[in-house]
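sanity check this fold:
=====
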Amino acid sequence: MNSNHDFCGSDVWREMVREQIIPWALGDGVLGDDLLEVGPGFGATTEVFSERVARLTAVEIDPRLAARLTERFAGTNVEVVEGDATDLPFPDDRFSGATCFSMLHHVPGEALQDRLFAEVARVLRPGAAFVATDSLHSDDLRDFHEGDTYEPIDPAGLADRLTAAGFRDVEVETNDYGWAARARTA
């Protein structure tokens, strides 16, 4: 990620995540007691979700961010795993729920994005919830990501992609923040 992403560690972003984005995306969804968080980045969502579940496993591909998160959440109910969400190191049916907030545009290409969705479905228990959000494409966001991976997902085709990955009851909606998807494993 380029240095513009330092904003994702700011108090402004943490407040927006806590007060606006998570409540909108999660709705009345229940994530259970053993949550998987994919791509926590600077940990704004990790902070919120760790207060709502008994156990949270955060998978972060960036070694620097994984180390920061490990230090920040040491001694809490959060386990940070440095890893690639397209090849998760967990057994089938492990987690009671999963989240993925504002990071999917960093996954290069539709094939890897779909592999991530399939891996999340694999490690979720039957009927478990998956909640994901991301931004909508814009020229400003493309410019913000200069020198960085920026491959936003078109929400118009997202329900079909999630269904193909093993999810059902898929809902996708958009607003000023971007899109939110809610689904359950089959």
Strands lie at 34-38, 55-60, 78-82, 95-101, 124-134, 167-175, 178-185.
